[in-house]
Amino acid sequence: MRPTQILFIGLFSLPFVLCVEPDEELQCNISHDEWKGSPLENAEYRLVGDKCIYITSENSDWNTANDACTKSANSSALVIWNWEENQAIQKAMKEKFNVEEAYLGFVYNNTKCYWSNGDTSSYEHLSTSEFCYPTPPPATVKTTSDPSKQRVGTSLVIIADSSKYSTKALTSIELNFASMLAKHISDRGPVEMATYFYGCNNGNEGDPSVVDAWYPGYAQNMNDFQNQINYLLGVSKEGCQMDSPLSFYRMIQTLQYYYYGPQSATVFPPRRRNYGRIAVVIFSSNTNSSEVIGNSPINPVPNSPVITISVGNSAASLGSTSVPQNSNYIRLADLSNLTALVEQVDARIFSSSFSMFDTLPEELCWFMKASDPNGDWYPSPCSEEKRFLCQTIKYDYIPPPTENTLDERVLPCEPRTANLSYFLDLGNTRCYKISTTKRNFSDAEQNCFPDSCVIRHSPQLVSITSELEMSKLDTMAAGVPNEAMFWIGLKFDNAVKKFTWVDGSTDMSYDNWRKGYPRIPCDGCECVAYVVNDGYWINTDCSLELRTICYFDALKPVDTTATALYEEL
Q1: Are 108 and 160 contained in the same domain?
Q2: In this structure, are 427 and 543 located in the same domain?
Q3: Beta strand pairing status for 278-284 and 154-161?
Q4: How far is CA 440 from the centre of its chain?
Q5: What's the pLDDT tens digit per position in 201-252?
Q6: 63: containing domain
Q7: Which residues does 221 contact at the CB level (< 8 Å), separation at least 6?
Q8: On the chain, which terminus has fewer CB atoms closer than 10 Å, C or N?
Q9: Residue 425 shares a structural domain with residue 487
Q10: pLDDT tens across 343-364, in order?
């Protein structure tokens, strides 16, 4: 059966999601009278997910094709929501359309990049960040270098791999590289530097007395930076056990807490920096691709590159960890030529705002290449003629149920196509679902899973009232690959000085805290996440982008205004 179609209606400033299930298999080869005489008149099509994707039969400039596309109801230039869809579009271009380049609905206009139809999708896969995230002006710090070669002031973080996948000799080489790169950069412009490694457990990693040495602040000169390196070399030689199973995940979290975190945070006090731009270099010899990919996404800082380096032919790819994704990823068989690597990494950190244009156009339109191995999008003057991808979503009307009652002979969760989970042995009428998108806690609290279908009900972050219910959610979470944590609906209420369920539930008889939690007081980490690895709850930074565990009660009174809107479709 083809996927359910989705319609978002703005209701009380929040999207309300209505789902309809087609009576028959969705057909994309329908007549579009509005497209006659336009580049879309004889368009080929392909069903991708819940969208009919059409491609112009001939090349045209972006604006002409977009004008034709939007004349048809519910149609717009293509918006891509995630990596899986990005891959599917590339595949369709190669196998179905036999086209190398085609425009998307992603555009740049003067100072910003956005989707032309107003879609709020945050997904992007840019070949260059030059236009959407322009480089800031150089710092006004005096240097001894040639003025024509002066650099943007940068906070540099270099992270070595000291996990079970690496060796102590390899870790030492990576730290030697850190010294060489820092010296190379400091000779050419303003920089402050910090380095640490991950995966090495000598029994004191969590000791607050050594945190400042373990995750140091930025050194302002080479002598202080070399002291950081010497400390790490000493720790390694003293007998560090390279066996931490959560090493890669911990490294990503540490980077975001101590080096990317808000400068005002107090619970995980970030290392004070003098520059708004952070350049990060990460080494990994990890061969466990599921561990790396599942814990790798980094919340990027504007204008701040993340260069990732996989060491060894069997090491897992770090393409999804680099920023921009895949564009700043390097794979090396070994580290035999550090001098060349220094030059290569330096060039990526300080690439001189390259542009494929003599003068920057006021408007750019992004296109995809079918043959690009990374699935990147490329900017082009909108006047250049290319094929164009147009999307259409078709809505069918099915009357809503006349009564909001539960027939004990059937499951209470509708629509079936929303893939909701119901557990009969819980003895409740709750319908559960895990979101497919990641958001911070505040956004998730306001709208738990806007990417899924729920008829006439408003889903909420889940409240958990029993060990049995928790075990059911364990099972659901285990079915989601490559995710480390999920938001649940528990949050510290400063007014009453205790944790409360955001759905208003007053049943606090059950909890599932990890040992040592909750950690209160905690500035900025009042929100609770379920950790997949050990199955416990922790309170953590509310700004983290996580997937959510949501629910709604199938027998809870529905919003009659929303029902009325539904019936008018």
Answers
A1: no
A2: yes
A3: parallel
A4: 11
A5: 655 544 555 566 678 889 999 999 999 999 888 877 665 666 655 577 778 8
A6: 32-121+364-393
A7: 186
A8: N
A9: yes
A10: 889 888 887 543 434 445 678 8
